[in-house]
Amino acid sequence: MQSLKDYIYKNEFTSKFPGDDSGDLSPRQTPGALYSKAVPTPVSKPELLAWTETLAEDLNIAYPTDEDLEILAGNKITASMHPYAACYAGHQFGNWAGQLGDGRAITLGEWENKGKTYELQLKGAGPTAYSRSADGRAVLRSSVREYLMSEAMHHLGVPTTRALSLVYTGDKILRDMFYDGNAAYEPGATVMRVSESFLRFGNFEILAARKERENLENLVHWTIDKFYPHITGENKIISWFKEVIERTAHLMVEWHRVGFVHGVMNTDNMSILGQTIDYGPFSFLDDYDPGFTPNTTDLPGRRYAFGNQPSIGLWNLSRLATAINPLFEDSAKLEEALNTYENIFWNKYYQMMGEKLGLDEVKEEDKMLISNFEEILAKVKPDMTIFYQLLIDIPEDISEEEKIMNHFGECFYTEPQDEVKTTFLDLLKTYSERRKANKISASESKELMRKTNPRFILRNYLLHQAIEELEQGKNELFEKLRTALKDPYSDKFDEFLKKRPNWATKKAGCSMLSCSS
């Protein structure tokens, strides 16, 4: 195992592309630069709150010594590091926002293991040239949320960036949580994030907007050669774009499978690798509501609501297409590629839903059944996670309405009545008959459902409780959640298989959140 302090870091990105190496942290435009040097700003009293042993083992990183902790806190850089903040742009809530960049994320260097390199990036380590008027810090609540959720998504099998460490800084940070004039001091923390690349759509948008064609072409080719090495030939740019489309569609389907709502799908938050990136005001669904958004900034339009995520994925891909369009003689190939998104998405979606429902295969007539599930669940609004768990063991005899309603009783926030209840029961009867017609056995069908439907999800109210306890110096719930998220498809942690409690419905940090961190 290699230590963080002794490792000789790679710096391929900064050596390959032009950047601003002045180290000036004052907010400014940086034309011609793909990054700006940014040395982390020291904190007063770092304390290691969490270390991801499995990720560290995968990367061959040794448990941190006191000197390594100084690196994780942003108090120390080594001689081989070239810390920087990336420059990118983005469309935010559908509007062009111009230059953005890493305002509170600093990549220290690249760690190589088993033929792959991984960016080690500190979030909350102080200001950069792209912090604008902010301080570049992150508070404990947002850092805990990102640390736990990125690891939860990994163990759910959803493509995601990872988190190696969570460090309490010992400093207080002033934040206005809901931008309503009620600012307060909160404890600060940093997260060490890990990914093969943190490149996002916005890295390409900024170069196109600035008409830096050479930089754009170089970045595209480097991205393909580095992260898509299987793509070769004269038409590799369009082949690469098609794979980005496929990965993005896959990510949208995976979010739907587990009921995840990102909350802020701006183009600067869209990974070029098709990963979940930049965890802000996210949430899992409690009650099934396609119109749910956890982000107060997304109200009242609900652009990034759960049910809108697939179409926003396409919209964001179209912005990426616009960005790389200067590399094509005409836009026909890009448009043709974009037009494949819906078919790719729906094919993956129906396959995924077939597995959630325990079907042996998805026939054409099954697509209507799946659509009916989505439509009726949106009316009944059961707890999504609990509903699908109960569906696994639906009684074979579903002729008795009272028995069926009792079986599903614990998933209802409000028990369906009248026409909605009748429609719900009819759906279950149709579904039961379809499942009985499977060519696979009942036990095989149930096993398929158990592998597809998580039993444990990291609900916002649980995160909120864990954060409150950490702020009081307690870590029992935090550690319980860390353990549970590693095995989300088992029944070992059924103490968390519960509906959102009533008190959490309107409580700040449990139902709605802002982008503040």
Outline the structure in words:
With 517 residues, this protein is of the alpha+beta class. The protein is built from 17 helices and eleven strands. Strands 2-8-9-7-6 form a five-stranded antiparallel sheet.
Task: Give the topology.
Elements: H1 12-16, E1 35-37, E2 47-51, H2 53-59, H3 66-73, E3 84-86, E4 89-92, E5 95-99, E6 105-113, E7 116-123, H4 140-156, E8 162-175, E9 184-195, H5 201-209, H6 213-227, H7 236-258, E10 260-261, E11 283-284, H8 309-324, H9 332-338, H10 341-356, H11 364-380, H12 384-392, H13 401-407, H14 418-436, H15 442-452, H16 460-471, H17 476-484
Antiparallel strand pairs: 1-3, 2-8, 4-5, 6-7, 7-9, 8-9, 10-11
Helix pairs in contact: 4-16, 5-8, 7-8, 7-9, 7-10, 11-14, 16-17
Task: Give the structure's gist in a few sentences.
This protein is 40% helix and 13% strand. The protein has helices at 12-16, 53-59, 66-73, 140-156, 201-209, 213-227, 236-258, 309-324, 332-338, 341-356, 364-380, 384-392, 401-407, 418-436, 442-452, 460-471, 476-484; strands spanning 35-37, 47-51, 84-86, 89-92, 95-99, 105-113, 116-123, 162-175, 184-195, 260-261, 283-284.
